[in-house]
Amino acid sequence: VALPPETERLIARRELLLGPAYRLMYDEPLHFVRGEGAWLIDAAGRRYLDAYNNVTSLGHCHPAVVAAIAQQAATLTTNTRYLQEGILDLAERLLATLPPALDRMMLTCTGSEANDLALRIAKAATGGSGVIVTETAYHGITDAVAQFSPSLGAAVDLGMQVELVPAPGDPGAEGDAGFGVAVQAAVARLRRRGIRPAMLIVDTMFTSDGVRPGPAGFLAPAAAAIRQAGGLFVADEVQPGFARTGEGFWGFQRHGVVPDIVTMGKPMGNGHPVAGLAIGAALVEEFGRNTRYFNTFGGNSVSCAAALAVLQVIADEGLQDNALRMGARLMAGLAGLSDRHALLSPPRGAGLMIGAEIRRDGHPDRAATAAIVNGLRREGVLISSCGKDHNVLKIRPPLIVGPAEVDHFVETLDRVLEGVQ
Ligand code: PMP
């Protein structure tokens, strides 16, 4: 693809300064200079519908969050070694969204750190070290967490203590107990290698596994299986949390389970780096007695102000309900397209977390998926793909998306599918 000279110049400069581990999205990389609501604006002033970004879930630059950050930054930013009310207000508000058994909060800056901390706590609480994850899971970037993030690919060695289970199938593909049976088998494999399990950790919408919402309930037998083996059940809510699924504030709630640890991040600060975990008092006891936890920026005053503002906006603007309603509209639109376009399978998802497979003659079509993602980008609509076979369209508009934007998405995808052979 021939790129504009300015794009070429930025790419070259980036390679020189940042090195090869940084990857750009799309055949024709984008350079944004501004964002508002569901829209991103590039250097030439062109507007793109952001149907991919689940960080700025309230819309880009939401004024209430911007004001909260600015006000706190202009007043004081300090850390958890001093008394401050913001972190306590935030912990109270977050814990109120969670089951009563989860009654302690710990704050970090990133989802990776939250999962890393979950592992440390799980090891201390169980005396085990084994970790069970799904085949194409992503949980983060620290050395320990990358070892249980198989979606990073062959370049990252999975840890000796890691066992993989297949992601749960589509509704009807297996019984409710299928995932639990797979977890039991993974526990047995760990045991044969002399490893005691510390935790089963899953993204409760199985996003990087290709978005696997159902059948709701299949997590319960899996949670029971890991607990029976002495390990913890950790819900990674970095993707589904904060009302995205519409059906619950947290993804695990769709399954009627109570995790031992809930990790969270991404949309928690609407773009400001703030993340953390919720846990029960008894489980964090062993860890807390033997070590201190100080994270310089985790739980700083500005991050807490940002996260408090996010919770307030979700409540004030009824965004969980909007996610449910707009999600249903989007699913209906996509279902209509799948009736007319042979490549597009019926969509699956909950709220505004949606996946739709691209298949040709029944087989996953990675090339066509990439063509559709890049075709949408050329038409000014942003999504990406996921799944073991890289053939699932990953669709995650912000929670504030409106009916006109949803319809615009469906019309644009219709046009792009028309052009993909
Ligand atoms: N868990 C899941 C499910 C994620 O999707 C991600 C980020 N894509 C992470 C953890 C890591 O979060 P962060 O990038 O904030 O470290």
Automatic annotation (TrEMBL):
Keywords, in A-Z order: Aminotransferase, Pyridoxal phosphate, Transferase
Cofactor(s) the protein requires to work: pyridoxal 5'-phosphate
One GO molecular-function entry: transaminase activity
InterPro entries for this protein: Aminotrans_3 (IPR005814), Aminotrans_3_PPA_site (IPR049704), PyrdxlP-dep_Trfase (IPR015424), PyrdxlP-dep_Trfase_major (IPR015421), PyrdxlP-dep_Trfase_small (IPR015422)
Record CDD domains: OAT_like (cd00610)
PANTHER family tied to this protein: ALANINE--GLYOXYLATE AMINOTRANSFERASE 2-LIKE (PTHR45688:SF13), PTHR45688
Name of this chain's protein: 4-aminobutyrate aminotransferase
Organism: Paracoccus solventivorans
